[in-house]
UniProtKB/TrEMBL annotation, chains A, B:
Belongs to the class-IV pyridoxal-phosphate-dependent aminotransferase family. It comes from Subsaximicrobium wynnwilliamsii. It comes from the Bacteria. This is Branched-chain-amino-acid aminotransferase. PANTHER family: BRANCHED-CHAIN-AMINO-ACID AMINOTRANSFERASE, SUBGROUP IIII AMINOTRANSFERASE.
């Protein structure tokens, strides 16, 4: 069934772009935003007129439900520019489907498909001067929906705002990442919202991650809440393990995000004759594999980081070091293949690129 | 260790109160707010000057972390007025401790004790004309903290806003409540944030609750995520069961909120020679007790609802009806005792009232 709506996109342009004032060589992730933003309000049971306006603060009541009950979901996507100035999105259909899946789980009305794509494409096109060409550069796109009812009853909001904001980006994680495997804290419950990009899932990880950082780790790898014996995902990434020549990643579930990078890497592995198993993987299996030398790699996978190699993990107060990454590592090979597809430098046999 | 700060509370009063325009006989919960609000911003590593200003919308960037990562916690409290016009809070020390416990779990800096109490008391005193006397009437107080950094990196915010807003209230649930016992969806994981009043905990319940409502139930009683065999809490309430003459409620844990009403009822039960057991309670135990007639009552307990009697529950597609509530029911007796203490109509032997 198609999910479309009929209002015309309204556009108000900035008088003068800020892009010439930006030092693209020195950008902190997610703090600089482009000239414009997209938004569309839901009220009286329907999504209203979608709009692109100059990026600006919003006015919102202190009683807005998003502040009190965390009724908010988001997506992370990127736009890429090739050396000829062409601009591409990467599998935006996946993000569209997922934001509505996340929304449904949080009792947020689904967003119309045509508003999403028209808004996204028009916005990226208007602000394409903000996209630097070159592998590693991108424009990070953040669609999100928040509950804006001025009412503090603990019930779903009757009004929402869908927005897209854009931030020029370089690679998210710099350097190698050391991770702590969770033994006490948890990210999500079976039957909960772990599979959704629900805002509250992220804040819940900040404190355990801070504790890990205080001990010299950049991220936590989450395990199942019941037994802490199965490896699930990292804070903002899915996780892959390489034992001997086989990649392994956990199956998605209601606790694990259905990552676009994750599923693309599984396909790329198949395309490149890299054996890849999607199955539950125990902490004990990677501990044993590390001890006998068969654990070759661990890496995180996500839109922001693309692929983030992990250099060591700690579990039960033991630290396990991984071999150094080189150009033959799966993480290097797959990352290069992903980036080349995203930046229009390689054939796109799976039809993942969408030119704007 | 005392947790205090030194700035003087700044006050800006409304020119004219709106209170005379309010129809207190016809108030939807949480949609009408008093003349003033309290707020205090955190930046540069410290809580800044606390302020009371006219209630008003706020200006916030679309990239504010609260919108993206749900870094937000809150409290629910009430102020009561007796027939002589005296105003009381109920165990505000418990709410103060809990908001900072919630904050710590979400990597939010703790709020100073003196700012909390001076802000709360001054605000309630300024807006006390909004409190109707009479049992059942109250002023609902909503302290909350939100992450306001303009940055979408998935990490704790460096700036926050602590606020208190106030809404005149009557009893929260009207009529009897039928509940569905969760068999698939979950509220929280061991090692997660279920014990905290974290915003995201609430949005995660809206969809399963809506499904329950579509089937004629007002609330869900959550069970443990691992096995769905233990009764934990209702959406916005702790839950008590009466089997024969004994009250039973689940122990608090990292999955269950340490409710102020819950702990007050446990003490009131002791004060009134009502046997009360705090122990894990299985769904099968109340199913059996319902079948053999020993299950006399189930009720929810929380600040908003005080006590909310449950008239029926469904589990595994079987509906179990509870006996009708009368004035001898524990729910009636305990609710009456709580309200009388809160409204200064009974002795306060535990020292729970704080006069403003």
């Amino acid at each position: 069934m198609s999910n479309t709506a009929n209002a015309k996109l309204q556009i108000e342009k900035v008088k003068e772009s800020r892009v010439s004032s930006i030092d693209f060589s020195d950008l902190a992730f997610g703090k600089t935003f482009t000239d414009h933003m997209f938004y569309c309000d839901y009220k009286n049971g329907a999504w209203q007129e979608p709009k692109i306006v100059p990026y600006q603060p919003m006015t919102i009541d202190p009683s807005a439900r998003v502040f009190h009950y965390g009724q908010a979901v988001f997506e992370g996507m990127k736009a890429y520019k090739d050396d000829n100035g062409k601009v591409f999105l990467f599998r935006p259909d996946q993000n569209f489907k997922r934001i509505n899946k996340s929304a449904a789980r949080l009792a947020i009305p689904e967003f119309p498909e045509n508003y999403f794509f028209e808004g996204l494409k028009t916005l990226v096109n208007m602000d394409k001067a903000w996209i630097q060409p070159g592998v590693g550069n991108s424009l990070y796109l953040r669609p999100f929906v928040i509950a804006i009812d001025s009412a503090i009853a603990a019930a779903p909001s009757e009004s929402y705002r869908f927005m897209i904001i854009c931030a020029p980006a370089k690679a998210y994680y710099k350097g190698t990442v050391r991770v702590l495997i969770a033994e006490k804290f948890s990210r999500s419950a079976s039957g909960g919202v772990g599979f959704a990009k629900a805002a509250g899932n992220y804040a819940a990880q900040f404190y355990p991650t801070k504790l890990a950082q205080d001990r010299g780790y950049q991220q936590v790898i989450w395990t199942d809440a019941d037994t802490h014996t199965y490896l699930e995902e990292a804070g903002t990434m899915n996780v892959f393990f390489r034992i001997n020549d086989t990649l392994i990643t956990a199956p998605i579930s209601d606790r694990i995000l259905d990552g676009v990078t994750r599923k693309s890497l599984i396909q790329l592995a198949a395309d490149n004759d890299i054996p890849c198993e999607v199955r539950p993987i125990k902490v004990s299996e990677i501990v044993e594999a590390s001890k006998d030398g068969s654990l070759k790699e661990i890496f995180g996978a996500g839109t922001a980081a693309v692929i983030s190699p992990i250099s060591a993990f700690e579990f039960q107060e033991q630290v396990y070091e991984l071999p150094e990454v080189n150009e033959h590592s799966y993480s290097s090979r797959l990352k290069s293949k992903m980036l080349n597809i995203q930046h229009n430098l390689a054939e796109d046999k799976n039809g993942w690129r969408m030119e704007i």
